[in-house]
Amino acid sequence: MELSKNKVAAKISWGEKCRTYDTMITAETGLVQNKMAARIRVAWKRLPSSVTKHAKMIYQRILASYLSSVSKQKRSDVTKQISLTAVVESEKLVNVILKSPAAIYKRNVALPVSLPIHSLNDQLPYNDVHNNLHYLLEKTTGPICRFERGQLTTFSNKRYENYMPDSCFQVLAQDCTSSLNFIVLLKKDSSNVMRSMQRLVEIGKDIDMRYNEERPTVTINGQEIARESLPYNKDSFKIELKNSNKLVLYAKEFGITELNFSNMEVELHILNDYRNRVCGLCGQANGDKRNDLRMPNGNLNDNPVSFVSSWTLPSQSCSDETGKRIQQLDKHSNSG
């Protein structure tokens, strides 16, 4: 089985000084002969006699009768681990492989319903299973920030009203480490038309998404990309047009799992690795709502209005509803 980066492991130790017994539990996804697969494995060095006794009892009373009808192969060596692997053979067939300490069991399981493999593939951004598995894992477990109809929901699920002055960029989110891999900016013009700017610092790319005559357009470093030229798939990122009214950016190499842009909504998904290393209107993605309203200087602010202003970039054309210029409250620097 070829393993992907999608792997989670936990070690449990107990006994005297936590050294008498230990168990390692691993869950992972990957490929078996270029087919999607998942595996759970439990390995140990030593277990209490009570645990092994109950395990044998469960096997004899529950599993033995079922496994008697399953293809069985004795192992040449006895191992101290159990693994269960499921390989997707087709939309209606899954190959299940159980490896016990003494034997290997294999069985093809017919599913009562079809797995939506082909329809799912049509919605996935990459051409290979490895990257698509990584994308699915990150999108389902990674932090999400959403701005819709004036309300912003942070990575830690805190909600507040985001007042947007006309024609002035706000820092939605950015990598606040010294790497500064990405910056996502957001603004609206006097006609309430949304605009989003993504800067991929490492490769010097500015991706400008906006609505022009009720149609989404995208430019890269000032060069407009024709709609018929989408999807754009170069320079370690990809841009798609979906349903004729939404632009989607994929830039996992720079920390962005997915960014959805339409005239009504901006939704940003970042990698799990960027938890607690981002800043901006979306917060720090550390799971603590109390830390979300942190300004560029590192101070917390319980006032959403002044917090939003602190992440608003000053501009000569940027004014609030009273016509006064919006001034930056704090120097924009890495807050760590």
From TrEMBL:
Sorted UniProt keywords: Glycoprotein, Storage protein
Alphabetized InterPro entries for the sequence: Lipid_transp_b-sht_shell, Vitellinogen_b-sht_shell, Vitellinogen_b-sht_shell_sf, Vitellogenin/Apolipophorin, VWF_type-D
GO molecular function: lipid transporter activity; nutrient reservoir activity
VWFD domain sequence ranges: 143-319
Pfam families listed in its UniProt record: Vit_b-sht_shell, VWD
Highest taxon listed in the record's lineage: Eukaryota
Signal peptide per UniProt: none
GO biological process: cellular response to estrogen stimulus; response to estradiol
Protein name: VWFD domain-containing protein
Originating species: Mugilogobius chulae (yellowstripe goby)
Classification lineage: Eukaryota, Metazoa, Chordata, Craniata, Vertebrata
